[in-house]
Amino acid sequence: MSALLNRTRAELRIGRLSRRHFLAATAGSGFVLALGWPTASDAADPPKYGALGMPYGVVDNPLVFVAIGDDGLVRITCHRAEMGQGVRTGMPLIVADELEADWARVRVVQAPGDEARYGNQDTDGSRSTRHFFMPMRRVGAAARQMLEAAAAARWGVPVAEVTAKNHQLLHGPSGRTLSYGEVARAAAALPVPASDTLRLKKPADFRYIGKGNVPIVDGPDIVRGRAVYGIDVVLPDMLFAVVARSPVYGGTLRGFDAAAALKVPGVVKVVEIKGTPIPNGYEPLPGVAVIATNTWAAINGRKALKLDWEGGPNASYDSVAYRAAMEAAAAQPGKLVRNHGDVAAALPASAKTLKAVYYMPHLAQAPMEPPAATARFKDGRMDVWGPLQSPQSVRTGVAKRLGLDIDKVTVHVTLLGGGFGRKSNGDFASEAALLAKESDGRPVKVVWTRDDDLHHSFYHTVSVEHLEAGIDATGKPMAWLHRSVGPTLSALFVPDPKHESAAELGMGLVNVPFAVPNIRIENPEAAARVRVGWYRSVSNLPHAFAIQSFVCEMAQAAGKDPKDYLLELLGPPRNIDPRELNDTWNYGESPTLYPVDIGRLRRVVTTAAEAAGWGKALGPRRGRGIAAHYSFTTYAAVVVEVAVGAKGELTIPRVDIAVDCGAIVNPERLRSQMEGAVMMGIGNALSSEITFKAGLAQQNNFDTYEVLRMNAAPKRIEVAMIGGDYDAPLGGAGEPGVPPMAPALCNAIFAATGKRIRSLPIGNQLSA
């Protein structure tokens, strides 16, 4: 086993967990095991923090649980949220494989929000499996070895003669067997193996990991309608609430009249939700809640409210004017964030120069399940149920806002009907808790309508990307200038920041891995005028769109094939320590563990191109486009084939995507994630856009905020999974497929029509 996979920033520690600290769902189990990382106080290597001051999961003392009952049933706790990516299957599956458990006798338990017990539970950044692959292997191996030791003691034989296999302990010389349940209690009393004595399986011996033979655990409940999402929570004597929020971000409530609302049949109470000053993080917006016996009554009560809002500093926010301001900023020098060589001298000395400006609008996550959460305050305890990507932050926030001890707040995580980063922000769950505190012990479910969701989202940043390049007489790139302008999501936490955070800059911008002798990257100022938040792939989206589109423009200027030119820009296979490029790196990752492997990036490019038949002739007004991007420690490349009718009708006959995320835990889920990334990336590029006028979002529902329609979807998607390399750092799967989609699509449109698309969404630009 590679030494790389065994490395951690702090030495792993495995220890038993007392019963009183374990989940109630495992009560009565004979065996309980927990794995934890050292806390900051006892770690030899101090914890690293992300650019926003937020700690990352690998150093936050996560606990991963195994419980084995006397009946042999194995319960494995998943501390991350399930939103379709398969984490409730994938991570327990890793434990079960090392444990030699029979998957049919495994049950998955969902962890509540509890940072002290589980560490960072943020299900974002495509980090769950890649950060917990080795920890979960270790806890499974430790449990297996303890069971083997207990069986050896029972038989009075050397432990080396005992082997765990498919939920049984086997004594080789005599052929005797014991079930896991028979020795579970004895195993729990044994010392836990030290980390350096764990015997991890060889990849060739995996039963589940990488095999693709395990369906998702929630599948049967989902298809039968039994799965419980946030909107499905039902409690006795429950009330329902909707909230009228400040229509402009940063606005305040001057006053309101609830008399008409209280006359609506079913309305029980009207409660003001006090806002907090900007920056207010994930706190609820100021608003007025209508609580009723049913949702319909609550909605009608909200319509009857008389509200007087003060628009505040963002009441003049206008998308058209803001874009013009960003373009003006991009045309001027900005904050220097990377400098190599002398671009100022190299650009005018080049045989040919080119310039382009790219635009990407605000996007809303718009999950199929809008935000919804239920809370109950009873006997001094607050319980919250919801589809939450960050349950521990909700727990902390609710306790602080309501003045409760943290151990008096329990946050229960349901399935998520889509998240894409929106449900990392638990403002809607905090609303439910605030209203439950005012409801005399009755639970309250807060429901957001679709227009609530689109009007009050944590939007993906709007951006302008200004690029210039110089090439010599042979077409070789000599100079690269990139100015990236866009409001930062750190504005949620820091007063009036004007520049992208280090994490955002590290998403394909400052770490662009091109072999160009002169590179200069700048970040001009931009102020946030709305709530900017996490969106699937975050700032990789605008950076990849601009860079990979510009590569195609450079190829045209050089008279070269776009795929060949991309490979030329990447240069020969080599590993790049991101610290050679800048003083930050992608999403808080350690540069020593995660160098950029240009060989792997080149390989996904050539794999996707070969699969798509790159270079083979297509008919008139048909074309192929290519793009590649490195993000979340994963390498992805896409080839899109398009056909454009005489009136601009666009069809996409085929998309080929190649992905290399290192070892593949669940191939079926990896394939699904790439297919979903293709669909979402195309939808983003074709039609999705949030615009503002007088501070108000102009889109209300899916008629005006368009996600991908079935008729616009690609006819065929082929996924090439390059994996199984357990010597390579594990990569994420949820996000890396999205960034190259928009540039590959726009490059294909150029190949088919000669028309450059530099502004998203594409909309009707093809028919103009």
Task: Tell me about this structure.
This protein has 768 residues and is an alpha+beta fold. It folds into three domains: 219 residues, Aldehyde oxidase/xanthine dehydrogenase, molybdopterin binding domain (Aldehyde Oxidoreductase, domain 4, 2-Layer Sandwich); 161 residues, Aldehyde oxidase/xanthine dehydrogenase, molybdopterin binding domain (Aldehyde Oxidoreductase, domain 4, 2-Layer Sandwich); 334 residues, 2-Layer Sandwich (Aldehyde Oxidoreductase, domain 4). The protein has 19 helices and 30 strands. The strands form eight sheets. It has a seven-stranded mixed beta sheet with strand order 11-12-9-19-16-17-18. It is globular, with a radius of gyration of 27 Å. The termini are far apart. The N terminus is likely disordered.
Task: Tell me the layout of helices and strands.
Elements: H1 3-6, E1 13-15, E2 29-36, E3 64-69, E4 74-78, H2 87-99, E5 106-110, H3 115-118, H4 128-155, E6 162-165, E7 168-171, E8 177-179, H5 180-188, H6 219-223, E9 239-245, E10 252-257, H7 259-262, E11 267-273, E12 287-292, H8 295-304, E13 306-310, H9 319-330, E14 335-340, H10 343-349, E15 352-360, E16 372-378, E17 381-386, H11 391-402, E18 409-413, H12 427-437, E19 444-447, H13 450-455, E20 463-471, E21 477-485, H14 502-505, E22 518-523, H15 540-558, H16 562-570, E23 575-576, E24 596-597, H17 598-612, E25 622-631, E26 634-644, E27 650-662, H18 667-686, E28 692-693, E29 696-697, E30 717-723, H19 741-753
